[in-house]
Automatic annotation (TrEMBL):
Keywords from the named record: Disulfide bond, Electron transport, Redox-active center, Transport
Protein name: Thioredoxin
Keyword Disulfide bond: yes
Family, similarity comment: Belongs to the thioredoxin family.
Organism: Cohnella nanjingensis
PROSITE patterns xref list: THIOREDOXIN_1, THIOREDOXIN_2
Site (Deprotonates C-terminal active site Cys): 24
Lineage: Bacteria, Bacillati, Bacillota, Bacilli, Bacillales
Domain Thioredoxin: start-end pairs: 1-106
UniProt site positions, description: Contributes to redox potential value: 31-32
Active-site positions on this chain: 30 (nucleophile), 33 (nucleophile)
Amino acid sequence: MKLTEVNDQSFKEHVRPLGVTLVDFSTTWCPPCKALMPVLEELADAYGSQVSMLKVDCDDSPETASAFGVMANPTVIVFRDGEPAEKLVGLRPSGAYRAVLDRHLVPDGESSSARN
């Protein structure tokens, strides 16, 4: 599954008002960003409709990147119910992204083991 590409004009309409959205802020020329893409595509396949996965090209959408304080690429921001919840700056192992998504997908008051 591919990430949905969004820009300054379409960003707000694609972030889920309820639920979890992962946004990859990156550029086409950034080697760590290129290395992150297969990890995010794997996560998109694994989480399916539970998580909306978006991609913002910081060169093409500088207003959105600036609005969320993106200073380095790649930066991944996880939104919960339309609001930024966590920011991961730089390339991280797959498990780091999974841990953040799992933390925000678990309903309040329910342990992650209760989901499985």
